[in-house]
Every structure is written in structure tokens, then in C-alpha cells.
């Protein structure tokens, strides 16, 4: 098994699938982690060199076991992308602390565990990349985002700590802030059915940037990377 291996959490039909396609396009074997077996089977058929793994990353033991299975099946992970996300949108008086902790586990704690699983092999090889897909909630808290924004902000700061720790060991860690609605099969019809194409960020364009960042020359690495449509107000 000589091909590089990319592991992606949150391999949905939008950004996750687009990133899987982009890395497979350049010869990667891609491990796709998601909770839905049917979707993973479909993506396996669509994306050469990919393999799906049913995993709820909120179950940290299952996440550890799945990463080990990926290593056994495909080889050591050279690029890990934490794309899985969970959220709920309620005001502070409506918020459920138990649900908040569940969201934190998916968005932030799972990133810690994923890094602990893949970083030792990267350190041994002297290179690797860990990319985290985030959003504007990581930078500000709105009234109905009290159970989501804190988890994404913590995710960003955790990624920065990991970057400062592992960067000198040859591992590139980056945080991609997507300041946009992403054009996915669920987002457009459910939330923005009347918006034009220019309103959305294309999953394939996001995937291209993620691939580029993962392969930056080590003399010029990025950490904070922002993506938004050209007309977005910010």
C-alpha cells in the first residue's frame, strides 16, 4: 500500500464527499467516516479508491477503533480532515446542557481524539496534515448559537494549540473558516430555496482549497484560512 491515505470525518453528500473526490483524484486512498451506511456505500461506488466506515465519532472508543481499522485496511493516515459537525440553535433559556456536551464532543473532543490517533504515525514519518473545517460561529456568538458557537470556538483554539505543538514536528494543521452557506443537497432546498447560485459556496471549490492547504510547502504554511463567496458581506 504505497498510496497516501486521507481520512475524512463527516463524509456527507456535500463538502465531505467533495473532499473525498478531490483527494481520490490525485491518487489518495480515502477513508470516509459517517453514521449512514447507505450513503457510504453509494460514495464508495462513485469515488475510486475510497472506503466507507460507519462510525459515530461521538463514541470516542468507536472513533479510536475505526482509525485503527483504517490503518490496517489502507495504511497510515497522511492527511486527516475533521469535517464532522453537530449543532442546535436555541436561545440560552432554551438550551439543554446535555445536548450542549454532545455537540462539544462531536465538534471538539473528537478532534482531540482523532489527532491523538493519527499524529504519532505522522511524527514518525516526519510529515502529515490535519485540516479542520469550521465556520463563522467559531469567531462570534449570536443569540441562538449558544450551543454551537462555543464548541466551534473551542475547536478553533484546540486546532491552534495542536498546530503550535505539532508544526515543529513536521505536521501541518490548519483551520478553514467557511463564511457561507454551502450548496449541499439539504442546505439549499431546506434553508435557502430562493437564493441564486452565487449565494452559495461550492463544495468542490472548498475541496480544492482544502487540498491546496494540505499540500502547501512547509516554508509557507497557512493556519487560519477564510472562504466566502465574492459578494458576501463581512
Keywords:
single chain, 234 residues, alpha/beta, Rossmann fold, 7-stranded parallel sheet, two-stranded parallel ribbon, 43% helix, globular
Secondary-structure topology with pairs:
Elements: E1 5-9, H1 15-25, E2 29-34, H2 37-46, E3 50-54, H3 60-74, E4 79-82, H4 97-125, E5 128-135, H5 149-166, E6 171-178, E7 181-182, H6 187-191, E8 200-201, H7 203-214, E9 224-227
Parallel strand pairs: 1-2, 1-4, 2-3, 4-5, 5-6, 6-9, 7-8
Helix pairs in contact: 1-7, 3-4, 4-5
Description:
Strand 2 (29-34), helix 2 (37-46) and strand 3 (50-54) form a beta-alpha-beta unit. The strands form two sheets. A seven-stranded parallel sheet has the order 3-2-1-4-5-6-9, sandwiched between helices. The protein has a two-stranded parallel ribbon with strand order 7-8. The chain has 234 residues and is of the alpha/beta class. The chain contains seven helices and nine strands. It is globular, with a radius of gyration of 17 Å.
Question: TL;DR?
Answer:
This protein has 234 residues and is α/β, with parallel strands linked by helices.
Amino acid at each position: 500500500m504505497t498510496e497516501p491515505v486521507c481520512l475524512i470525518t463527516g463524509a456527507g453528500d456535500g463538502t465531505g464527499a467533495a473532499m473525498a473526490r478531490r483527494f481520490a483524484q490525485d491518487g489518495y486512498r480515502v477513508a470516509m467516516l459517517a453514521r449512514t451506511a447507505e450513503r457510504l456505500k453509494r460514495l464508495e461506488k462513485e469515488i475510486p479508491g475510497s472506503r466507507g466506515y460507519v462510525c459515530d465519532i461521538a463514541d470516542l472508543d468507536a472513533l479510536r477503533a475505526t482509525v485503527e481499522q483504517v490503518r490496517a485496511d489502507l495504511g497510515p493516515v497522511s492527511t486527516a480532515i475533521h469535517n464532522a459537525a453537530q449543532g442546535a440553535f436555541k436561545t440560552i433559556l432554551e438550551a439543554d446542557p446535555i445536548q450542549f456536551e454532545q455537540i462539544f464532543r462531536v465538534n471538539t473532543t473528537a478532534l482531540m481524539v482523532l489527532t491523538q490517533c493519527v499524529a504519532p504515525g505522522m511524527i514518525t514519518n516526519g510529515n502529515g496534515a490535519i485540516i479542520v473545517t469550521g465556520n463563522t460561529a467559531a469567531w462570534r456568538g449570536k443569540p441562538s448559537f449558544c450551543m454551537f458557537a462555543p464548541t466551534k470556538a473551542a475547536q478553533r483554539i484546540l486546532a491552534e494549540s495542536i498546530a503550535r505543538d505539532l508544526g515543529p514536528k513536521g505536521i501541518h494543521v490548519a483551520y478553514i473558516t467557511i463564511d457561507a452557506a454551502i450548496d449541499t443537497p439539504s442546505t439549499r432546498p431546506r434553508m435557502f430555496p430562493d437564493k441564486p447560485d452565487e449565494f452559495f459556496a461550492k463544495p468542490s471549490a472548498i475541496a480544492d482549497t482544502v487540498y491546496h492547504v494540505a499540500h502547501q510547502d512547509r516554508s509557507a504554511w497557512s493556519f487560519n484560512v477564510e472562504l466566502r463567496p465574492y459578494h458576501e458581506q463581512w
